[in-house]
Structures are given as structure tokens and as C-alpha cells.
Amino acid sequence: MSAANRISGKGRLTPAKTARFTFDGRVLNALEGDSVASALLANGIHLAGRSFKYHRARGILTAGPEEPNALFDISRDAGRATPNVRGTMQEVYDGLTVKSQNRWPSLAFDVSGFNNLLSPFFAAGFYYKTFMWPKAAWKAIYEPFIREAAGLGVAPKEADPDHYSNRFAHCDVLVAGGGAAGIAAALAAAETGASVIIADERAAFGGSLHFDTGVTIDGQEGFAWAQAMTAKLAAMPNVTVLTRTTVFGYYAQNFIGLVERVSEHLASPDKSLPRERMWQVRAKRVILATGAIERHMVFDGNDRPGIMLASAARTYLNHYGVAVGAKVGVYTSHDSAYEAAFDLKAAGVQIPVIVDARDKPGEAVLAKARELGINVQAGSSVLKTGGKLRISSITVARRGMRSGEKVNVDALMVSSGWTPSVHLFSQSRGKVAFDAELQRFLPGTYAQDCLSVGACNGTNSLEASIEEALGAGQLMAEATGATGSSSLSINATQAFDWTGGMTGAADGAGAENSSAKAFVDFQHDVCAKDIRLAVREGMHSIEHIKRYTTNGMATDQGKTSNIHGLAIAAEALGKPIPEVGLTTFRAPYTPVTFGAIVNHARGPLFDPARKTPMHKWEEDHGAVFEDVGIWKRAWFYPRAGENMHQAVDRECKTVRTVAGVFDASTLGKIEVVGPDAAKFMNVMYTNSWDTLKPGRCRYGIMLREDGFVYDDGVVGRLAEDRFHVTTTTGGAPRVMQHMEDYLQTEFPDLKVFLTSTTEQWAVIAVQGPKAREIIEPLLEGIDMSNEAFPHMSVVEGKIAGVPTRLFRMTFAGELGFEVNVPADYGHAVWEAIWARAEPLGACAYGTEAMHILRAEKGYIIVGQDTDGTVTPDDAGLGWAVGKKKADFVGIRGLKRPDLVAEGRKQLVGLRTKDPKEVLEEGAQVVADPNQPVPMKMLGHVTSSYWSENCGHSIAMALVAGGRSKMGQTLYVPMADRVIPVEVCDAVFYDKEGGRINV
To answer: CA 900 to CA 888: how far, in whole Å?
Structure first.
């Protein structure tokens, strides 16, 4: 045996399998399968931490994920350290290092424990009233002090050397919870042939069967039955069984987040194993079997180490073989605590008294207690407790009395009943209903395809829970289309039917103005009197009370404290609990590590770079890259001795005089296909698409509902039912989402399919007078004449032996072609084109030259020349809005008075009086530079460049009433000078547009 508090013959762990770990530097023995909490208790250690505000000594309260006190720093080494780990859930392994938190210099002697003496000054809401004066002290004194004191654990400083994994999955039925109800539901669903995922956060399935040894299922002891059924499920090919896996989040459309602790329990994990695995599951149906959480009793001194939930003490005895004390008292208002007393009594532990707040405990448990010779004091209260670092006594009195009998104990089991765990149900946006008889919230109105079964649904008996779960499993499986049937029948019995329970403060909690500390929220040191104080000071909504007192705002999200807090607030307000309200449960259900969330997105994958098929060629030819979103794009190609400006000037001149080759693969590309493709395009874009013939292209503008420009691009019609849509590089994902959103929610009757093809096509733009000469010899089956292939056309054929979609279009204002080929062939086709282009004197050019060339022609870039408040008319693109169209996204927005009012900002050109002066993008434009500050701004510069082709600087700007100011002089004030500019047309080069048709 590993420690004196182990009870021979009790528990399910193997005495021969031991492990050694350290706690605050002290080497301790444990058994394989121990939690840190059970191992500490086995070694006689109840003191586990210090509270957040008062730094009071705190012990282990629970045996599950709801633990508020026993939070530890867990580590293998400096790089593998995790703070705030619940000791009730962390399994011990050989070599584990455990450190207590929020104390100095030691857990037993914490200097900050002095805060407890100052508790009258730290009443609820003190932080709203304190640190207000003097004002200057906030930055110098108060804020640094608060930041230093905040938090419990310490974040690790070393890099995490482990890796994490992520898995996406779909299933017919997901079952959250591996207790008896969850197992039964999974079995019933699996027998129909449905694909099932069942997950539970513990190392072994069983739920309450871990502690309830009075249960028999199908002739077996309950926990043994659970293990047998888990093995049966694991052997079924359509079932995935996940232990040590927390279902932490329930999101829209039955999207479920789970975290699996893969190697956190292993002494020497295989390096190939991830530390944790994130599961992102889309389930057709969800069954919630998340059980119920036992509540503590609220009375003076209820936080001393050695006081714990009755179910926890029972778990430590029956599963881990550990007695929580030698003389254990009980304070309860619910029958379940009696069974804990019976089990401990049978294991040789003294039970000096069961204090029951009820006048009439359950008859069956009361009779059993008398049979065992246990003293039961009904209609009584524990007024206070004694002891410092561990409970040593309780004072028991008849209800209503203010003095009583002192009873020596070294542990105290408490229970005020059970709260159904509706956290995941609430996350699913379901609406809870209040059960007034038993003072609890239950699942009410469902918002998603899920069902709750068992204790979380308020079903009290085990037999009824299993029957309910079997029915739910088959029902939910059938709803997914499973055709099999389940004939399962499971017989279950339990030793006692539980009755009773209470919410709120017990008789020993003290009045509002008393010195009693009856804790509701252990982690944040919220007492019953704090909640009453919040009500007295005007907090009448539970959300306000929550924030004023911080009740339920700790890492446990109030799992043990919420209902008590509600009941105390309701009593103080003189209202029933439902009228006070219920706080919102948010994901995650329990804390999730950053490692699990960040997952692979670390190091080079933190900001992954998307590269085009031509990236290697561009690198080899000296390209300097810029980040455009997460794309790496060739910015410019400097030659020996050239700086950026010289390289860009050369590229711009070469494109206009010979030709340029440009990598346009990053443009968004979406395939719109289906019998109603044209109808869909008509409602998504401002232009008309009915008149566009197959083989032709059109520039399109997409708006938001408010009428402002959202994206633009050239669209080619390949067939009557197929469009090739291009978007801006940064707009590709949002345009796809925008289209899909409207297709699914507004126009679901349209027969259209949308496919993102951005990664499928490499795009090579060849622009300039010799563009046709460069690519024509490489083409097969394509007539390049102006007559057969005019500007704004698209044709399919081959180039360099590779299938291509060839567009005749330009973003430079020159004769231009965009060659779309399968991405795998992009590099090869680029090489073939370059082999033709280089001897003719053409160049490869980058995004900077592309920006200048398009600005010379007055072509806009959405997001640069628009700012989310620009309409097509503002941008000079009113011609692209179909005047005869009855409907499209944004048409109503365009008709708003403020969008057609005079004086709106309009896109115009600007020429500096000094042709060599290049404006700064973002600079403000004013009419009078001598006006007092703050000046009246007319607009701002959106694009500005030096144009080697024009021989002067060029700029575009959004200016109020811009088109009415042509020829006027405006001013751009800078920090050291004022720059005069002339408003002009936004087209600076080839105003007639003849160069595109050569």
C-alpha cells in the first residue's frame, strides 16, 4: 500500500502498481490510476490551495471537473508545465511534479493570508468603490499591484516542446457523457447501425457508478457493467469511444468541440503521441448525458480543508480506496450523503453524527443509519467549524438556535442535493425551465437536434434514466436515417431512492451584517452575505449580481455555486428564482489549454504562407515578396544595381512598350454552376447576366445589403449554366461565404452549386503590345484574332499542351490575356511563356508595378480605393449597375436618401502642382489649408504613385463632391508643408482606351 489512508480491500486500483510524484518538493507515493487529489488524500494531505481574494486555506472539495479549490501547477519539466490544473482530474504518473498555487512563501504559511483579517474591507463590489483616489495613483500604484495579485497559477516561461493534433469528424449520433445513461444511449444508437461517438472526460466510463456501489445492472456491480459495455462499444466498428475527452463546447448546427487528453497521464509518452487532440465534430444528432453536480452546504466556515462533497468522499473510498478521515461528520439535506456515511462506516471509519437540515429525512436511509448505530440529528444545523489548516470540529445545534454542541471530526461530508448539468444544453441555445418542486433548472425548449437524458434531464432514478436513454438512442439514430432496430433491455436497481435537497444558505450562514463566512463560491471567496449586500446596493438582475460579487465567474463557472447564489438573491429580493434569472453558460465547459486550441498553428504554421505554383521560379529570379493576406506575392524583380523604384519604373515601362508577365494566381476564383446560375448571378451582382453570352466576360460589382461595394472582379460565362467568377485576392473567402450565405438562406430554391477553385487554377497574366505574339504560338485550337477573340472574351483550349481557360482581359489597360491552367502545370506553362517573352524584351513584373499600371488607367482596388462606405456611383462605376434590374443584393440600400445625396465622397484623380511630388496614401484633402484646427476634411488620398509612363506623380482620392471640383486646386496638409493638388479625371493614361484592342 502507498499510504496510511488507504483502506485495504477498498477501491479498484492495483496495490502492486505504484507511482512516485512530488508535491511542493515532497516525494509522495501513489498508485497507478490515482488522481492527484486521491493521492494527496491517501497521504493525509487535505490542504490543497489558497483562495483568490482572502488567501484562506482550502482543501479538496470534489472528485470531478467541478473542483474550485485544488488547482495545481502540473509539470514534467520547465517546458511541460500547465497551471490551474484540477487535481481531481489529473492522473498521477511516475515523475509528476505538482505545485500548489497562489501562496508565498509556502502553502501552510501564506503571508497573504493576512487578507483574511482585512476581509471587512474586501466586501462585494469593493473594487468598484476603491482605488478611485487619488487619480494619479492608479497607474503608479493600484494597477501594478492589482495585476501582480491577479490570477492563481503562473504561466510557463519556456516553450512547449510537445505537439498537439486536430481531427475533424462527422457522426450520426454524438453522446456527451459516459455514465449509465450515456452508455445505454450509445448502445441503443449503435445497434441501429448509426455511427456513434461517445465521450467522457474521465479515464474510465461510469459516471456516478465510480462511487455508487449500491447499484446493480443486469446482475453486475454497476461499475463493472460500465466497463463491460464500454468494451462492447469499443469493439463495434460504427462506434468511437473517447475516454479522457471533455465535450467543452456546443456550437451552431450541432458542431461540437471536444478535447482529448492523449498523453497527460503517461510517465514516458511515445514522442509520436500528441499531448492533446482537439476534435471538431459535426453530429446529425446529439444526446446529452452529462449528469448532475452535487451542491455543498452554505454555512459559516464551510471552506476549511477536510470539508468535501459526500459523493467525492464516496468516490475516494470506493474507487480509489482512500478514506478522507478517521472521524467523519456529515451535514446534509439530501439522502445521498447517507450512503456515503454507510460506505465509510462499513470501511471502519467513525461517523460521529449526521446533521440533517430537514425535519424528516428519507425513511429508508434513516432506518439504515439507526441500524448501523449512527447518530442522526434531524432539523439541525452546523453553526460553524473549527480548525486552521484542516477541520477539527463542528458545532451542531437545533435549527434556529445560536449555540450548540461541539463535535470533533477530522473531515466533514456535505450535500444539499444535486444540480442537473445543463451547461452544454444552454450552450446549444436551448431554453431552460424551472422545476419549482425540486428547485432546479432543467432542459426546456430545444434549439438544436439534441436530447437530454438521465440526471441532466432531471430524471431521478437509475432505472428511469436508463430506460429514457435507450429510447433516446434509438429515436435519435432513426432520425438520422438508420434502418436497424435496437431490442436492448437493461435492468437496474439501486440501494436507495434519494429524496430531499435545498438551495441557498443554511441556518448556519449568519445574517448579512454578521462576521460569518458562509461561502457560496469558493474560488472567488463569495459569501452568502456578499450576495445579500449586492441586492441591498441595487443589483436586482442575476447578471448584475454575478458581476458585482464575481459569483460564478471563476474557472469552474459556478458549477457548485450558481444555484445557491440564485436562491440567496431570490430570497433577498423576495422573488421566485425564475424571476431573478439564470446566468449564461458559455464554452468551454471546463478550461481548455491554449495548446489544444492553437494546435498546429505554431512556429512556421502560426501564420502559414500560401505560395503560388510559380513561387520557386520567382525566388530564383530575384523577386522581392510582399505579404498579401497570407499569400506571398512577387512585389518587384530588381536587377543588379537597381533599387525598388528603379526596378518598378523599368517594369512599368516594359509592360507598356513590350509586354510583361505577371503571376495572378492569388485572385479568388469561384465556379458558379447550375440551371439557375444566371439567376443567382443576377441577384448577387449589380450587373445583368442574362445578356452575357457564353464565351464572353463582364466586369461585376458585388454589394452588401447597405449598398456599399463589397468586391469586384471579371466574370466569364463558359456555358449557359456555368460562370467562372474572379474576386480580389483578399476577398476570395468572404465572397464565397457571402454567396453561400445568400444561397442557403435567401435563395434556397435556386439550383446552383458553388465551388471555390482558387487553388485549382494557376493564372499567368501576359500584358502589353506584344502579348499576343508571346502566347499565340503556344496555343492549340484557339483563334487569337480580334474578330474571333475580342476584348472581354473567354475560351477553352490548350496552351503548351495543357488545358487552359484563356481570358482576354486586362488590369493594365493594355492588350492582355490571363492564362488559367491547372495549378500542377502552372510552373511549366510559366516557363514556356517566359521562354517566348524574354527574347522579345518582355519582363516579369510584380504587384507594385501592377498597382501603378492599374492606377494609370483609373482601375480601382476594393479595400484600397473603397473603405466600406463607397457606392458604385461614388467610385465612378455607376455604369455597372443594371438600371432595369428589379432586384439584387444592395438595391434597397442604394436607394437610401443619404446614398444619393449631393456632396458624397467621389473617386477622382489628383495631380500635384509639382509633378515630382508623390502624395502619401491616407493623407487628408482640404479646401483651405489656413483654416483653424480641427480642419474640415474633404476626403483622403486612396492611391498614390510615381508614374514613369506619365512622367509625373498620379493619385486617386475620395473627395466630397469630387466630380464637381474638376480643375480646382485643393490642398494636402502634411506635418512640414502643404501640397497643392489639382482635381482631375482618374484616368491618366490612354483615356480613349484604344490600347486594349490592338
So the answer is: 18
